[in-house]
Amino acid sequence: QLQPVESGGGVVQTGGSLRLSCSASEITLDRYAIGWFRQAPGKEREGVVCKNYNDGSTFYEDSVDGRFAIRRDASKRTIYLQMDNVGPDDTAVYYCAIGGRNNIIIPWDCAEHRFHSWGQGVQVTVSS
Prior knowledge:
Elements: E1 5-7, E2 10-13, E3 18-23, E4 32-39, E5 46-52, E6 57-60, E7 68-72, E8 78-83, E9 92-101, E10 115-118, E11 122-127
Parallel strand pairs: 2-11
Antiparallel strand pairs: 1-3, 3-8, 4-5, 4-9, 5-6, 7-8, 9-10, 9-11
């Protein structure tokens, strides 16, 4: 079973940028569904950006649309969450999750049941 591992968390100032990385045992993450989720203190976990690399469908949570982006490196072994213009509300533990492969799901979103392998999470703290 795939085990994603996140890295790149830390402290960033309001308005700054941060990039999180996700990889899974050097497996090529081609045609998989990949999701970035987060859980802030006292809140439920929510989907932030989720992409189905089988057909390119991408879902952005409203509060991050235009600020966050999901990208993949040329080897297709690392998925990134690029976070720009961050604010205090972005403070949370961020999780990478891997879902099914070769699937087409319409409509596409960040429903957690679509993802079966979860990382341990990394802390992102935005200071004011």
